[in-house]
Write a structure and sequence with these properties.
3 domains; alpha+beta; single chain; globular; 3-stranded antiparallel sheet
């Protein structure tokens, strides 16, 4: 029951277009004051009704169109802007800033509050067309992201692109090798080591990163649980089979993705509870529920997980005695 994406074609209108259609600056200003139009940057407007219903990512895509419309014709969306244009989830970025690079030019341009032009030569093999815009390829944009952010946001981007099958890990490795002299090579190297296409959400990406930074054993993602007849009853977000512990991430995306048509949130949660109980009965394992708030306190989350590990270890000793 996820909200369908907005249709963005032709939504952004430049001042020069509105004037060419017969409107005056005073009329445009009156439409803005009446909240019929919203100015998203200097000289660029969208219908307020569209802006209000747009997600943060859709607003970024609208801003991208406003920037590109007034930029050099050889300008391509790159870095995180290229990723967002693919409708691939990101985390930890300021989506009020558009990132671009000019094709065939090893120079950037003046940085603005809502626009960061980057240096770096883009060849024909580095770009593609999508939704009427020129954007950097998935692997190129994934590498670009590692040069402007930390490991965790970059890992989210790489995992989401891998999971969407927009690129392969080998594609990214080739980009890293080809740009070994660029800043951010250490970030790219670590991200390559941690990347996992099996992870299905930003929350899972971030939890995986917590296990890395907190020195926890690396869990197995998408662990399958079957009943006595071999029928698949659940795929767990993460599991530590040796410890008898599994993790389920509670996030909005899970509710939106797995709720059945006509099912209320309460009905969905009850069905999830029954599923968890069945998994515990079949495996004898302990479930740890993780939320977005938990990810903001990684040390505390790691301590809770270690405490469950220790409790399971003591229980195993007691039963074996």
């Amino acid at each position: 029951m996820m909200k369908p994406p907005l249709a963005l074609a032709g939504v952004v209108r430049l001042r020069r277009e509105l004037v060419a259609e017969g409107m005056t600056d005073d009329q445009i200003a009156r439409l803005v004051r009446a909240k019929a139009l919203t100015r998203i940057r200097y000289g660029a407007y969208v219908p307020t009704s569209v802006w209000l219903q747009a997600t943060e990512e859709e607003r970024h895509r609208l801003l991208c169109r406003a920037v590109v419309a007034r930029a050099d014709p050889m300008t391509a969306l790159t870095h995180v802007s290229s990723v967002v244009e693919r409708c691939v989830p990101v985390w930890g970025f300021d989506l009020g800033v558009v990132h671009t690079t000019r094709l065939g030019a090893d120079r950037a341009g003046r940085k603005l509050a809502d626009w960061t032009p980057h240096r770096g030569v883009l060849g024909d093999d580095d770009v593609e067309e999508l939704h009427g815009l020129t954007i950097s390829t998935a692997a190129r944009s994934a590498f670009e992201v590692t040069t402007i952010t930390g490991i965790e946001p970059a890992l989210v981007v790489v995992n989401r692109l891998l999971h969407a099958r927009a690129m392969t890990l080998q594609d990214l490795e080739h980009q890293v090798e080809a740009h070994a002299d660029w800043p951010g090579s250490l970030t790219a190297t670590i991200v390559l080591r941690l990347a996992d296409a099996r992870l299905e959400s930003v929350g899972e990406d971030r939890f995986s990163y917590v296990t890395y930074t907190q020195g926890l054993p690396r869990p197995e993602p998408q662990w399958e649980v079957r009943d006595e007849n071999g029928t698949l009853v659940a795929r767990l977000d993460f599991a530590w089979p040796d410890h008898g512990v599994f993790v389920e991430f509670d996030g909005r995306m899970k509710y939106e993705r797995y709720r059945r048509d006509g099912e209320t949130l309460e009905e969905f949660l009850m069905r999830e509870k029954r599923r968890e109980e069945l998994v515990c009965q079949l495996t004898g394992w302990t479930c740890i529920r993780v939320t977005w708030a938990d990810l903001a306190r990684p040390e505390r989350l790691a301590a809770r997980i270690r405490a469950v590990f220790e409790s399971r270890r003591r229980e195993g000793r007691r039963l074996g005695a």
